[in-house]
Specification:
Number of strands: 32
Radius of gyration: 36 Å
Number of domains: 7
Pfam families: SEC-C
Organism: Epilithonimonas hispanica
Protein name: SEC-C motif-containing protein
Strand content: 5-15%
Strand order of the largest sheet: 13-14-15-16-17-18-20-19
């Protein structure tokens, strides 16, 4: 017997009670020490008397059970023991089931460890997708795919005979593995939960698959002939019972990991299906050495991995530059490229060939050579810009070729940021759905900052740190743990597992069938493009033509387009077609799946006028006038989309999409018929199924917007979306204490609310100082231009979501995940947009004179600082107003902590309900939003004249004049498609005077004055004539905010000043101004005329809302609805001793015997802490003045009604007792219902919530 070995998960022989891997792993104990610690029965001794093949078949079956994923080393050890004991002619007796189970149970949990791989993975082979059981060999499937891609696809200099042998060997073994997966109905990329205990099946389960891993020689020869495999190559994978390696009991050298087959008579037993990947990598390397092409193979693999690294970075949004680097004077074998991923941000990609490095360079010198080369490159890159200095992220990628060569590489000395990671680690991060263009930079920044303060001990690769960082809100520190400088931070293996499995599963890279241009059949690699349906795209974004594929049918359905500049249009059309084909699968599946085509390709050909954006006027047309010409040119179904299709998609229903889907389905029917085959789908069937499935009518995937009608929907020349990141927020929170004065004392727990308020105020001051310091380093024009463009993107995103959200929800109503994503995306937009607007205000206020140029990476910190300024200011205000009193103090981690009770119990549920309400409103208002109602005249009515008079009394200018100035500036920006317009003071007057000939310069000057941001002495200093409250960014509707003043003005010395603006925001400014007036939320309304006008408007709002509630109840319930307001007073509908006011809507639910007394409040809910307090005091009364609370009269009415049910019965002519429910029904969600839910004397519901309650009871 070989040496005694302690399993990683065995109790440590030292007696500590810990597992060996967490105690003395690596320590060599004597045999006697180990023997005394063992309690398990010896596996070898138990199996020795019994026949080996049945045991091997059982071990093979165990490997195909998902619960046993991670126990592969144990099974390998057991398999080697079985093989080592097997005689040539094994006639030993069979082992009983009970003994076999006991032997495996006693031994099978020694070396289990949660695997990096999925239970099943996919190999991309010449014959198609091949499912493998990758076991625990890290990244083995990816490395094997790299080998096979390099050897078998494209041109290379490898010997043809070598390629033939690899094709045969890989083809045979992969076929066997895939066949087992197919027999067990396993799919690729199946993930399973790890179990520390090996799962042992019942005997009945095992005998269901007696020949699961057994393959007859004659059958394999047929397969080999079919695929042109050389069957003799199978010998390379067959274990020889006389192989001396069977005596080597070192698990790391176990021969079963490279010889997974056993020949028994005419059968081949695949006893180690989980070693197919490692076996093939070993086989390829042996053959490459035998053919003398090993070095060439490795070199070409490294070149291919360099190409894949380029493509991965391109997928993240990085752009390769044409910057040439000097020749590498070191002996380090590298492939280098320079990318740009942000303004003033370079990425230096350095792919290192580790095989060559191991052969040519001593281990200790690699780090020195890498540092020397990196320093030279970084120095060169910093010298490129004249005006701007570029920062560099050095990205060192270590090749992976299956040789397990490990090097200790120290961190790089030069460069602003750096990361050293393996090829597969880079791919995993790049294709992570959570990644974006700045992910690597931000992760490198956090890694560097943390490494400078602490000593990082990482028990796995860099991906392990990334996994921790990704799951910890962009930080490598635990916010609940205290650290002192120099502390050792230990990161155990495991954080990388979730990322690896999630990315591989989400990406689902595989081959799909395609007929090429030359009508040749082949496979192409694709990755998942949508979560809601099996829609895939080419892995590589740089592919010039549009190709997407739907894979819910037996054969793939490709949607293609080969026209230039068709980008956004074709992607909208194609996704709509694929989505509805997916939804129609229950109707179409049987007939389409009967066909035996390789694929369907639907080529969309869009009228060039449509693509080139020829101007048109929205008009109604007869749907019959839109003709989709269909041409069958095998292998394509060509569908021509005419220009007048635009008029159909401009409608607020989905008729256009129905017609497009019908055209595609007719094309499929014509294609099948033209091929001389049969498909039982009539045009009548198609029309019927499309009408049945494409519901409701506003379920639209194609959204056309007329930007001339609403410029906020204009997407032209906008920067990409960027939101506040968790990384930047974590950075600010980690450094919050540093923004306070030196030696500032913060107790672990602050008890006095005044001290809490002071801390919050000091934090706000510290954040203002930090913001001032950072902003001062920028050039004012460049920073404002960047921020205004960014804000324009936010305006567009907010507006388009009001259209896109209801349409997509109507489509995805069955897909909750898509709905959650919509809500989550909206939750990111609001704080980002608010912070950007606040930064524009701050920048304009102090007009910085620095030289720094902006970029997203650096501005991310500014956005996070601004957001935290708003957050802490709101916390302070909440405490001042008595709304909240959170626990607060210094955490052991050094962060300033506040409990989240107020947020979790009030703000979060209120925000969620409000978001749901907004979405409901989006749906209700979809028709109006989607089809813009044009105004054709400028005539003023009495209300407009009255408002103009009130507005001029308040601001010194009419609202009409503000509208005219706004319209002229919008026209200017829109006509030039400028996300940020910069106009000199002289020029802006000339433009406005020319466009507004009836307005004098003085009136225009007054209008510009009202619309222009004010400069002030500092961010925290109010301008003359204003108070501190006017500069609080957490207050809504402030007169000096960017939302109220959409123009920024900067002085240019002798050259005069310039105005900066974005035309979308000017439209948003005007809409907001109207909103503030007509909701009574304009805070500074001090003039009598304005106050009177607002009072009149608010007084008139109640009746339309009351009618809306009554109408909804009539149309959507069986309730009896009283058609008028029910007066309760002397001489009223219900006689009372005094006036209890009116019941706005009285509705009777006879089924449940309930009378609803509804008080309808057409209000706009509070949007910040100050407004919440105002709302609370208004309805519940201030301390000491509760009798003035609005809710009192409603409560008294409720008491009266419940005290006199006979009066209600008489009024309603009821013969039985009914329950009376009085409800305050608000048009919007009110925080009152959350702030005072325990003390509210009457329920307060939003109308949308009330609808849900009523619907659930029907």
């Amino acid at each position: 017997m070989g040496k005694i070995r302690v399993g990683r998960n065995d109790p440590c022989p030292c007696g500590s009670g810990k597992k060996y891997k967490k105690c003395h792993l690596g320590h060599k104990f004597s045999a006697s020490e180990i023997q005394t610690s063992l309690t398990k029965t010896d596996f070898r001794q138990m199996i020795k008397p019994y026949r080996g093949v049945p045991i091997l078949k059982f071990l093979a079956y165990l490997q195909t059970i998902p619960k046993n994923h991670g126990h592969n080393f144990d099974v390998e050890i057991m398999a080697r023991e079985v093989l080592d004991l097997m005689p040539e002619n094994d006639d030993r007796p069979f082992m009983s089931w009970q003994k076999l189970i006991k032997a495996v149970s006693d031994h099978g949990n020694s070396n289990s460890e949660e695997p990096y791989n999925l239970f099943t993975e996919n190999i991309l082979f010449s014959t198609g997708n091949q499912i493998v059981f990758p076991g625990v060999y890290r990244n083995a499937s990816s490395i094997l795919n790299e080998h096979l891609t390099v050897i078998l696809t494209g041109e290379n200099s490898l010997p043809e005979d070598f390629k033939k042998i690899v094709y045969s060997g890989a083809g045979i073994l992969l076929y066997l593995s895939n066949q087992i997966a197919v027999d067990l109905d396993y799919k690729r990329n199946e993930e399973v939960a790890f179990s520390e205990v090996i799962y042992l099946p019942a005997y009945e389960d095992f005998i269901q698959y007696p020949s699961l891993c057994t393959f007859d020689s004659a059958y394999l020869e047929k397969i080999a002939n079919h695929f042109n495999f050389d069957i003799s190559i199978i010998k390379q994978f067959v274990i020889d019972l006389d192989d001396p390696q069977l005596k080597d009991d070192d698990p790391e050298n176990n021969v079963v990991s490279t010889k997974p087959l056993l020949k028994e008579g005419s059968d081949y037993i695949f006893y180690m299906p989980t070693t197919v990947v490692s076996s093939l990598i070993s086989f390829i390397h042996r053959q490459a050495k035998a053919f003398g092409c090993y070095d060439v193979l490795i070199n070409q693999m490294v070149n291919h991995q360099s190409l894949e690294a380029h493509l991965a970075l391109d997928y993240m949004g990085w752009k390769m530059t044409d910057i040439e680097l000097s020749e590498n004077s070191t002996s380090l074998p590298t492939i280098e490229t320079v990318f740009q991923f942000d303004n003033q941000k370079f990425g230096y990609l350095c792919v290192v060939d580790l095989v060559q490095a191991r052969e040519k360079i001593k281990n200790g010198q690699i780090g020195d050579l890498l540092n020397r080369r990196n320093s030279a490159v970084v120095k060169h890159l910093k010298s490129i810009g004249e005006k701007e200095v570029f920062e560099t992220l050095s990205l060192v990628v270590l090749s992976e070729t299956g040789n397990d060569c490990l090097f200790s590489i120290p961190k790089l000395n030069d460069g602003d940021q750096h990361l050293i990671l393996t090829f597969n680690e880079l791919k995993t991060i790049a294709y992570d759905n959570n990644s974006d263009i700045l992910t690597l930079w931000k992760f490198a920044s956090v890694h560097k900052q943390t490494g400078n303060r602490f000593k990082i001990i990482n028990f796995a690769g860099l991906l392990n740190l990334y996994g921790f960082y990704r799951g910890n809100s962009g930080s490598l520190l635990n916010s609940d743990v205290g650290y002192s400088k120099g502390t050792m931070l230990t990161y155990l293996h495991g954080s990388d597992l979730k990322v690896i499995k999630e990315v591989r599963s989400d990406l689902d890279e595989h081959l799909t069938q395609m007929v090429t241009y030359e009508k040749q059949f082949g496979f192409v690699p694709v990755i998942r493009n949508r979560k809601y349906a099996p829609i895939y795209s080419f892995k590589y974004k740089s592919f010039p033509d549009y190709k997407q594929v739907l894979e819910c049918y037996k054969m793939p359905i490709w949607i293609t387009n080969y026209q230039k500049n068709s980008g956004l249009l074709v992607s909208e059309f194609a996704e709509a077609i694929m989505f509805w084909l997916f939804r129609l699968h229950p109707y179409l599946g049987d007939e389409i799946n009967k066909q035996d085509f390789v694929q369907f390709e639907i080529e969309l050909i869009i009228d060039e006028k449509f693509i080139n954006g020829v101007e048109f006027e929205i008009k109604d047309i007869e749907p019959e006038s839109v003709e989709f010409n269909i041409t069958i040119t095998p292998p394509k179904i060509q569908v021509f989309i005419p220009t007048n299709f635009l008029y159909l998609i401009a409608r607020n229903d989905n008729l256009g999409e129905k017609m497009l889907v019908i055209a595609v389905l007719k094309g499929i029917v014509q294609y099948v018929t033209a091929a001389g085959k049969q498909i039982l789908l009539t045009y009548k069937d198609i029309n019927m199924m499309v009408d049945n499935e494409l519901k409701p009518d506003n379920a639209k995937m194609i959204l056309f917007t007329d930007v001339a009608a609403n410029v906020e929907l204009d997407e032209r020349n906008l920067p990409p979306e960027h939101y506040i990141s968790d990384v930047d927020t974590s950075f600010v929170l980690d450094n919050l204490v540093n923004y306070l004065p030196a030696n500032y004392v913060i107790p672990e727990k602050i008890h006095d609310i005044k001290q809490k308020i002071k801390l919050c105020d000091d934090i706000v001051k510290g954040l203002i100082d930090e913001l001032t310091n950072i902003i001062s380093g920028f050039n004012v024009t460049d920073l404002l231009t960047w921020l205004i463009k960014w804000n324009e993107r936010c305006v567009y995103t907010r507006e388009i979501r009001q259209i896109r959200t209801p349409a997509k929800i109507s489509c995805f109503i069955e897909f909750e995940e898509e709905l959650r994503e919509i809500l989550e995306a909206d939750s990111k937009l609001v704080p980002t947009a608010h912070s950007i607007r606040t930064l524009i205000e701050f920048t304009s206020a102090i007009s910085p004179k620095g030289n720094l140029l902006p970029n997203y990476a650096d501005l991310g910190i500014l956005i996070a600082l601004t957001n935290q300024l708003t957050t802490w200011g709101a916390i302070s205000e909440g405490m001042r107003m008595g709304i909240s009193d959170p626990e607060m103090g210094l955490l052991s981690s050094g962060r300033i902590g506040t409990d989240k009770n107020f947020y979790n119990e009030v703000i979060s549920p209120f925000a969620y309900s409000r978001s749901k309400g907004l979405i409901s409103n989006y749906i209700d208002n979809f028709d109006e939003k989607y089809v813009h109602k044009y105004k054709t005249d400028n005539e003023q009515d009495d209300e407009t004249r009255e408002l103009d008079a009130a507005f001029e009394n308040e601001f010194g200018i009419t609202l009409t004049e503000i509208a005219e100035i706004s319209g002229a500036l919008i026209d200017y920006g829109f006509s030039r498609v400028e996300a940020c317009s910069i106009i000199s003071k002289e020029e802006i007057f000339n433009i406005l005077l020319a466009k507004l000939p009836n307005r004098c310069k003085q009136r225009i000057e007054k209008g510009l004055e009202m619309m222009t941001l004010l400069q002030r002495k500092g961010i925290g200093v109010p301008p003359a004539g204003y108070t501190a409250q006017d500069i609080f960014p957490w207050r809504y509707g402030r007169n000096i905010s960017y939302l109220r003043r959409p123009l920024a003005y900067i002085e240019n010395g002798d050259r005069g000043g310039s105005f900066l603006f974005g035309y979308r925001h000017i439209k948003a400014f005007y809409d907001n101004l109207i909103f503030l007036i007509f909701t009574g939320k304009i805070p500074e309304s001090a003039s009598e005329k304005m106050s009177a006008f607002i009072g009149k408007i608010l007084g008139e709002k109640g009746t339309p809302y009351r009618n809306e509630v009554a109408e909804w109840l009539k149309n959507n319930t069986t309730f009896e609805v009283i058609p008028y307001e029910v007066k309760i007073k002397a001489g009223g509908h219900i006689i009372a001793d005094k006036d209890y006011g009116d019941v706005d809507v009285m509705a009777i639910d006879h089924s449940h015997k309930i009378i609803y007394s509804l008080e309808c409040k057409n209000i706009v809910g509070a949007r910040n802490i100050h407004e919440m307090k105002v709302e609370l005091d208004l309805y519940l009364g201030r301390e000491g003045k509760k009798e003035k609370a609005k809710i009192i009269k409603h409560v008294n009415r409720d008491i009266f009604l419940k005290a006199h049910p006979e009066l209600l019965q008489a009024f309603l002519k009821l013969k039985e007792d009914y329950e009376i429910k009085s409800i305050i029904l608000a048009s919007e969600e009110m925080p009152l219902a959350y702030l005072a839910k325990e003390t509210l004397p009457l329920p307060v519901f939003s109308f949308n919530k009330f609808k849900d309650i009523i619907k659930s009871n029907l």
